[in-house]
Amino acid sequence: MTRPRRALLAWEFGAGRTHVLQILGLARHLREAGVECLAALYEPSLRDEFAAIGVPVIQTYVWPGRRRLAAGWHEGEVRAFGDVLVHLGMTFPGALGAALTHYDGVFALFQPDVVLGDNAPGALLAARGRVPAIAFGTNATLPPVRDGRFALRPDTQAEAAMFDERDIRDALNVELGAAGRPCLSELTDLLPAGSIYPFGPPAFDTYAAQRETPALPPYLAGFERPTRYERGEGVFAYLHGFVQGASAILDGLSDAQRATTLYLPGLMPAVRERLGPAIRVSDRALPQAWILSGPRCVLHHGGLQLTTACLAAGRPQVILAKELDNEIAGRFVGERGLGFACHVTQADAAFVREAVRAAHDDDLLAARCREAAAEFLVWTRPDPTRIVADAARRLLQRP
Q: Cα(60)–Cα(344) distance, rounded to whole angstroms?
């Protein structure tokens, strides 16, 4: 009896539920098509959500740059995608070799017929020369190629990346050669040509002006067009664990004195005890349907999924941006008068307090958001994970 086709879904770095939801969405479509899936996740504590759709979870390889607090790898300056790979630790001696050994074990046990990677360079390199692969996910980490190199980020004033792509390629090739794997002619060969699917609306795309083909829409799990726009009650705050090292943010949220539901994965007991009485902590992720209908406003880091969903649902936002694409999203929201934005390193308690109060209390702001919502509904379709799943199915149908 012929066994079902199998897909390995890998995620190796990046904070937030964006990656989790994208992989879940893709896995659902593949499972509906009869494809067996295995999810190799950077954060395996989310396994219950995958178990619910019949997808087992394993811990993926953890790169050296991620073996510390969540504020780690992205603190280094980034001018191009190669810089991300260096900060991640891919060029550390032995790092890529260990990743390939990890995936050798996964391949031997699961025997995938296709690999799909969301921020998963190790999985993509492990698949080269063995099985077809697809790279998908956030547009900021799937840059276009220009003159044989990854495009420079448009915000950099420099004429070159922090680290020469040839040096990065050579360091990776040492490990690839030692493992008996095909070497890279150029660093850009790391991404599978013709099978790259960046997500996110063009308005928030770091590389929009440099792409020949626009990025796909963001994946909005379960988003439904509102039939009516309710005002909601209270605040929903979704923050990443690193803010626990910046007390001003949580102090400002407490000082706002508005009923708040806080989802902060990895919240430490000592930090929890300092939260104000108006803050209720949720230890589990909340459904997007509730986030977009229950609270009056949303405080978050400017992830493209949640920013787009709030715009389309007519919800005021406060964005504490971390990365360039988050800053672009925050600037868009602020300039349109649909919320407030600040880089997370510049957000003091006073800014957070006043921005949250205004987003919660200002009826004119709420009205502007509701009136503008229809403009952003077009950003929610089509479902990009279905497009990627269809591409995977076509690869699986090849002899």
A: 29
